[in-house]
Structures
1.
Amino acid sequence: MNGKVFILALSTVAVGLVELIIGGILPAIAIDLNISLSSAGQLITVFALVYAVSGPVLLVITSKIERKKLYLLSLLIFFIGNMMTCFSPNFTFMMAARILTAMSTALIVVLSLTIAAKIVSPAHRAKALGLIYMGISSSLVMGVPLGILLSDKFGWRILFLGIAILSIGSFILISILLPRVAGENTLPLSQQIKAVGSLKIGSAHLATMFMLAGHYTLYAYFTPFLETVLQLDSGWISLCYLLFGIAAVSGGAFGGILSDSIGAQKSILVVIVSFALVLSFIPFTTFSCFWQVRNVANGN
């Protein structure tokens, strides 16, 4: 395995954090900026929309630019966006920072995958791509829970300062160690949009969109739910996010095993139905025996 892939994975840890950490600190941001929770939730919604749209668009626009140069430029913009977030005086300024960060994040993720695939031999390509995705997964498993605890001690702004510093570390390592990678032609946007018009591809995109919408709706307001309904402190909330992250990472492996066992089509149906059932049970989790035991342990 080419050691340079680990440097790319380090960058994906940073971009994974900036995308996911905000869900765990939403109430703190709402209080600090003097806005409602629903308004603060738009910081997640807009980020996701910009991320989804700008990824393919920017990749086509920048297809001729040398990949290392584009990667470094994306990291620089990512750094600026996080510094803007850290020192945001109001909601509008922070929203602008989130839009800037989402655009750079989309490019960093795509470039990490494409560059990783090019700098390793074909035999190690799957491992290289897996390592890139592991960087994002690790930010979910460890970064978000740790970030919630740090936010409780030092404030939410320190998290984005830390992410900015991490991105500068990646910038320095990539500028020194990563080789130049030539740009290449990509599929025009018109053809990409035409492909989505296909019934099979369009339905797959719709299923993914609705599932992710459900996931991010829960994730965005998970902390307010745990704080107000279950009355948990930051330690317990951090533990919940840790379990959430472990389940998310494990789910990828389980999905592969399930697909090999019963086939891709059946496994997709099983996952979608299970996901819908789990979401429908969320309102009833306040009656769980686990929380009763937790309350007794805390003397409540």
2.
Amino acid sequence: MRTGHPLGMAGFFVGMTIRCRGLPWGQVRDRFDISRRHEKDATKMQAADAIWTSAEELWRWQTELDALGPRLPGSTAHEAFSDQIADRLQGFGFIVESDVHVFDLWQPENWRLDLPDGGTIPCSVFPYSGETPDGGVTARLVRCRSRRDLARARGAIALVEVDMPAVPARLLFRRRMSVPADLRLPGRIRNAVIASVLKAPDLRRAAAQGVLGVVCVWKGMSAENARDQYLPFTTPYQGCPAVWADVEARDRLIAHADAGGMVTLTLRAERRPATSRTLWTVIEGREAGQTVVINTHTDGPNACEENGPIGLIALARYFRSRPHPPRRSMVFVFTTGHFQIPQFGIGHRQATSRWLEDHRDWWDGAEGHRKAVAGITLEHLGCMDWQDGPEGFAPSGEIAPELVYAGNTQMARLYQDCLSGRTRTRSIILRPHNRQHFGEGQPLFQVGIPALALIPAPDYLCRTGDVLPQLDAGLMLEQLSTFREVLDRLDQLDDPAPVQSPSWGL
């Protein structure tokens, strides 16, 4: 028997039963429609939860990233990673936008440091330093006592020790709160990235003073910790070839320089115009006019620097699969150029500043433009803590401290509340301080977008070697789950608070 009833046979009999109770059929149909929508929404929500990422999936993506090798801007490996990101997003149904940037590439091809007795000193490159002729440069090795004491090496190769200054933490950071509550920053910070900025030699000055090349060697850091650090990454092309010599060779090099010995420095590098891409995609929200910007960068020398794109892809897939679009549009930005900020950043800001300048219609709130009411920056996921100690460079057994910048008190409290489900937490929530805001969350803060920016800073952050043993997939999953909840709660806020000004002083 065919009833022709829109809900089928079951609907026919139920409808007849309810009609007998005096309820009009139109209301019956509406109730069934609502019930079916709720059932459909529940099914889609279950599907969304089912495709939330896992530690196994994150580790698979992580090892695929790592297999590409260092992914510095303009390199073949970085282009391959950009393709990987775009392909994965498109496979999940996203439309991926691409901003192509032209810059001057410096790409090292081979480098070595040779002594006259046939010995070779292990070394790594000083980024964007310079290059030698094919056969290298042979000259006397001259010890210089500081980064500016280079004139004595005119016509020679300078040897410069780079120490690890103990910088008072209060100059760089202002703590809002911590989880656990008793977690504190050390009184003084020793960090290779900071040391490379403050203490590495001024290679432009060296070139102007006729220095033929520079050999740097770390002081105050173990050989294993210092090996293959790709630093500094904040300088433009310098015009003077330079390398970092292995720490274990420091005493030998000093003695060789004191004896007036010769060395041959070889650093061959390709210099040419190149291109690199910033990728971005959008989940359109239900309400026009407001956005949340979620960003990271795609370039870096190792497995954790930068694995933020893994996290953004997982979050984007999750929120796209929810039964309803988010309240506010979510803009996911995968920025290039963090490892050549002088060419990609604008006004001495980090690389995301370029995307912000090029796409003001997505965040600045001007007439006809959307207004970004919040931001999330994710970098360096899953980092475990390794430290120099009596046994050398070794794990401490803890996760690396999670430095989290919060653009206002509301964002800080929101992040703190979302940590409740974690099994491992070492979060220090910061207020930007004395113009210091490390990482790609800086440009969001500087244009007035209140953001949370995760940026752990382990000692191995900028090494070009294998750092997979220092990463933990379970920790990655917990960190991403925290920010999934943060984004959920942000979407429910009627009136997100504006950004607070930075703090100043000691």
3.
Amino acid sequence: MSQMISKRRTKKTTKTKLTKRVKQLKKRKQKPKPKERMERRTKKKKKKIKKTRWKLTVKQYRRKRALRRKTSLEKRNQKMTRLRMVKKIRSVIFGSVVYLLQRVLQI
């Protein structure tokens, strides 16, 4: 287990190092000229739109949860009915075997 964890950690670090290296190289390639640099400073920065995760409303969440509960209940009910059927079948078979044995022993 400890080996796996260490492997995972090394993988992550190497990846981040690589991305940093690539970014540095890209920056080196695109060094702005002094005139551009001034323009870049004066330019107004655009506001970044934050990517928010799609949130459920309370109603939607409740509906989703109820559906999940319903499906789990249905599954449980199906399992129970299956078990009941199996029990019935077993008892019938067992009863018939016992009956046959009694008949055979009487003769």
4.
Amino acid sequence: DGAGIGPAVHAGLDQRLVRGTVERRAVDGVLDLLRRVTLADPAPDGAPWPVAVVGAPLDGAAHEALVEAGVHGWADAGAIDAPALRALADRAAARWRREHALRSELVRVRTRMDERKWVDKAKGLLMLARGMGEDEAFGLLRSTAMHANLRLGEVSRAVVDAAQWAEAVNRAGQLRMLSQRLARLAAQVLLHIEPARSLDQRRSVVERVDENITHLARLPAEPACAAALARVRAAREAMVAVWPARAAPRDMARIDATAEALLEGAEALVEALQAASGRRALRIVNLCGRQRMLAERIAKGALLATLGTGGDATLLPATAQAFEDALVALEQAPLTSPEVRAALAAARDEWLRLARSLQNLGRPQGGTALARSAEALVDTFDQLAAQYERSLQVILS
């Protein structure tokens, strides 16, 4: 009937006994009763109390079923008296304590193994990103854990998570740049600026877009991130579809419109990833990565103006001003290092070269010079974004 056997046993042994009249054909009913009683107060390391069953004699299969259900003792109701019942309860309690101790030790061992796994991953990440030795990387993790008053495994896992989020923001930022690069390459083909090279680059850009989308799809599924990624996928398909094998100037407006749709989707994805990460330090990775898109957008806008499909005449100067403002913000940012300062100086030089190439666009080979200058500027910010991504301030954020 599922009733307890009396307050004395409960008080003396701190346990619950499930009592029922058990026939061989009714074992399933008893097991269901045990499951319902146990689930009323579940514990991650097994049954929260000793469990004993008093009932009719059982066959071998029923014994195995009771063990699987977590029963710690059972006895024939026809041959039990008060002392035997207390002995049964004592045996069940002893078995439960032993089982509970073993389960607790197993949890501790698994926790230590899991922590070691995360520590090894974090050490490898620091060694690769910062050129540290193994001892130096471990010392940094340990001192960070002490200062943060956290377990070493917790800090190590946070370091790995931060690196993954930083890479995700960087890759999503690359999608912004690639959207504008595809439109620039289409304009170059129509203007007969290295058309064969431009078509080869188009194929590699589409492959890079697909690679980044595949990587980002493996991240934990956050609803906002998943929705933005689906938007990026749809824009990618649309952009490839509207670029015919033999494009004409009339196709450029549609190509650019799909590039803008891909850009908007990538922007939404970057913002969603940054919000999901909960790490403010990733803003500088985003800011730096966005410069790549602006460089390509400037070159694209100049070529569209030459082609006669430039659209808004204020777009190019506004984009150039946005680039300059962001470059100044990066130069003044507190997150810096000798490597970052050198990369920013190189970016400033490349920016000046791109500005000069805009002025010389009408000259022979001016379009080629503009394209090469934009690519060099993007490469510079690619390297700079990677340095921010691997910086200790971001990794330990």
